[in-house]
Amino acid sequence: MPHGLHVPAVHLPALHLPVVSPRARRIFFAIRVLITSLVGLGVLLSVAIFALSATGTARLVPVLSNSMAPNMPVGSMALTVPVSKSSIQVGDVIVFSNPTQPSTRVIHRITHVYGPNEADQFSNWNPDVLFATTQGDNNPQADPWIVTIADATVWRLQTSVPFLGYPAIWLAQPLAPIWLLATGVLVVALWILRSVWHRPRAHESVAQEAS
User: Fold this and answer.
1) 138-182, pLDDT tens digit by residue?
2) Among 60, 67, 50, 56, which Cα is nearest to 159's?
3) What is the maximum span of the chain, computed from C-alpha positions, in angstroms?
4) 137 with 71: CB under 8 angstroms?
5) φ, ψ at 12 (rounded to 5°)
6) 3-state class of 79 per DSSP?
7) How far is it, in rounded angstroms, from Cα 188 to Cα 32?
8) Which of 147, 54, 52 is nearest to 93 (CA)?
9) Boundaries of each Peptidase S26 domain copy (predicted)?
10) For 106, how many CA atoms within 13 A lie in the half-sphere containing its CB?
């Protein structure tokens, strides 16, 4: 009679990982670097926008349309600085709230600044308020409003950088958090795959030990 139950040994087949060519590895590495760089750039821009706005030193404003093309096309990032309202003159590019949609910011060029001698054109004239007309450089007609700014300072364009505004525009989209999460998962997956593919296979290790 057997003294115990003997279970036969089960030999599982060895797991053979697919052989990945050096070219494929380079492509996956480039994709991972690109995705990581884009995410990092978006985060840095968000931090920069918040920091500059919080300190009042400057404001970074993404350009959402081609109304100021070709010098400042859509996707550019405009750097604006606060200046005295009294220093604003024709030709300056300023940021202001759309009079018909106050939640929308507009960055257009000043085409006319009203002075005290034109006060009779306005029933609400106030010498402490800036009255001006504006127009986009790429628009055939002037804006259909008169801008009024009562603040002591106005945000005036200092310079702009093409394409730098796209990450900020993208991050402002409603689905941006979902895409960021999906991108993070993809980066982790690519990192894991790269680690697995770089791990030496069993027969390679045996061959190296035998040599």
Assistant:
1) 999 999 999 999 999 999 999 999 998 887 787 777 776 676 677
2) 60
3) 120
4) yes
5) -80, 145
6) strand
7) 9
8) 147
9) 43-111
10) 21
